[in-house]
Amino acid sequence: MKMQELHYFPGHMKKTQRAIEESIKKVDAVCEILDARIPLSSRNPDIDALTAGKPRLIVLNHTDQADSGKTKRWAAYFRRCGWAVLETDAKSGAGVKEFVPAVRALLAEKLRRYAEKGQAGRTVRVMVVGIPNVGKSTFINRVAGRTRAKAENRPGVTRSNQWVPVDGGLELLDTPGILWPKFEDQAAAMRLAFIGAIRDEIMDLEELACCLMAFLAEEYPACLTERYKIVPEPEESGYDLLVKAGRRRGFLISGGEVNTERMAKILMDEFRGGKLGCFTLELPPEACEGGEQ
Ligand code: G4P
Predict the structure, then answer these.
(1) Quick one: which atom of ligand 1 is closest to the CA of 151?
(2) What does the alpha-carbon distance between residue 88 and residue 90 come to, in Å, rounded to a whole number?
(3) Structure pTM?
(4) Which of 41, 104, 135, 242 has the highest Cβ tally under 10 A?
(5) pLDDT, tens digit, for every residue of 138-180?
């Protein structure tokens, strides 16, 4: 897949790194939010190094859009890596009420020491990190039980440190800056594009739709039969399937040719809108990346 130049902002990444390094000293734990549909591709590649030494809670968000069986496998994987795990749908709020107890369990030892020193009410601080669009703002708002304007994800727009109070002596800090995903990894970039986490303007939508068709034909052929009334054959390419689906939908242009551009747009919109079902686009590796914690 040819992807046009992805705009990567090394300068902004440096700024974010510095801001995280500065703030990390002030927090007791790190809550890393991932998109359950692409748990590895939605990780920032530097996050382990940036937050090293801090207790970690992994939040698998967007579970309502992910394959539930595979979410369980991902949760088991991250637990095996030594991290606490929570499964949430921040949009509806499912799983979010487990957050405070999970933080307390994660920091049980520290809280016990505070209690021994007569500091039982001491505020616990958690930094919430994640790449754009994983649902950080939605999650923080849910946990804090509030509504607020979404923080800007655009580079160049400063997001000042904001401590968000939560009931029960807990404060959250939204990522100070913008954490980029693994842009250099083309397969990861494509998965981010599938779910709409990378702007469509920077890639060819039809090529993207062909790749998605090929993926669905391989992993979830039944959804193509159900939605587009097509049965993928082994020799058919993603493009062939796009043509087949477009023909079924009656998207024809003069001369009887299929309007593949229109079908591509429909496929991407319907996939992202959940019309084809719930999907997880990658599976956990055998061993923990970066070793056991
Ligand atoms: P960010 O701060 O990490 O950048 O993400 P943000 O909370 O802005 O969430 C990005 C989009 O994902 C929002 O949709 C939000 O509603 C949606 N979202 C967040 N968590 C979940 C989830 O668990 N499940 C589902 N289905 N969606 C989730 P949007 O279209 O940008 O805005 P809107 O629909 O809320 O208006």
Answers:
(1) 2
(2) 6
(3) 0.90
(4) 242
(5) 999 999 987 654 554 544 444 555 789 998 789 999 887 788 8
